[in-house]
Design goal:
Length: 282
């Protein structure tokens, strides 16, 4: 086994709250107003809470695949697209996400939060511990961490046994990271997260989410079943999202095979790639 490449974490904390999912363009009456609230009201409100250090928003869009088929059979098709959103909060520790200041904010939502949060009802919300965080060795001397312009989000079910999970974590920190570094010239960092059900449910039951039923860790996109654990990889790239020269679009040869060899059922794996909207720090 190869030795780990010297690196440091670019994250601002030991835990992450991540919310992601897609919304139909037919379900959002005023998407411009939604984004105005999200960036200019909601993010500053969260950054004012002790222990919240940095937040980022990401986005990409997709078209309903059924539209392509419809366009071949009729000339009166109405376009149906989806907005895929992700927000990442970097926090001091998992306890920040159950702390009295955060619970107070969740139980006293602003008028904007009460208006727009139900629009996001079909999304996933997950409080996570950071199990691993590595970055390019060229940035090892940086005093403050940065973020990539493009983010790959990979969700999968981790192996059941603690021994297999530790072997997988070690593989990701060493061989897999070396593989990714060698394949993607634009890769900046990689972070391994583990969903925490108790911390996630603590926030989900507050007044901010009275009319919201987030996807659960058990049944959500790429989520674990009752015997497994949900893990996530965040892989950051310096490519501009959608750039024709971007390397993130390529499939890293050998990566999926390595996951499978370390006990990951690839049928549970789901990946989305997002472009950065904004990143703000406390």
């Amino acid at each position: 086994m190869s030795s780990p490449t010297p690196s440091r974490s670019l994250l601002r904390g030991c835990a992450i709250l991540i919310i992601w999912g897609r919304q139909s363009n037919l379900s959002i009456p005023d998407e411009r107003a939604l984004n105005d609230w999200w960036t200019n009201e909601h993010l500053p409100e969260r950054l004012a809470i002790p222990g919240f250090h940095r937040t980022r928003r990401y986005y990409h869009t997709s078209k309903d695949s059924s539209d392509d088929q419809a366009e071949t059979t009729t000339t009166t098709t109405t376009s149906h697209s989806y907005s895929h959103y992700m927000v990442v909060y970097e926090v001091s520790s998992l306890s920040t996400l159950t702390s009295p200041p955060y619970m107070h904010a969740l139980n006293n939502p602003t008028a904007g939060t009460q208006k727009f949060m139900p629009v996001l009802a079909s999304m996933n919300r997950s409080a996570c511990n950071v199990l691993l965080s590595v970055s390019r060795p060229e940035f090892s001397q940086c005093q403050r961490g940065g973020v990539g312009g493009t983010l790959a989000h990979v969700v999968f079910q981790a192996p059941q046994s603690s021994e297999a999970r530790e072997a997988l974590r070690t593989y990701l920190a060493t061989e897999a990271w070396e593989l990714i570094l060698g394949f993607f010239p634009s890769v900046l960092a990689m972070h391994l997260l583990e969903h925490d059900e108790e911390a996630s449910r603590s926030g989900n039951s507050t007044k901010s989410y009275d009319n919201v039923r987030f996807q659960t860790a058990i049944a959500g996109d790429g989520g674990a079943d009752e015997q497994g654990r949900k893990w996530m990889l965040l892989v950051e790239f310096t490519d501009p999202f959608g750039a024709p020269f971007a390397s993130y679009k390529e499939k890293c040869r050998g990566f999926s095979e390595g996951l499978s060899a370390h006990g990951v059922d690839l049928s549970t794996l789901k990946e989305e790639i997002y472009g950065l909207v904004v990143a703000m720090e406390e």
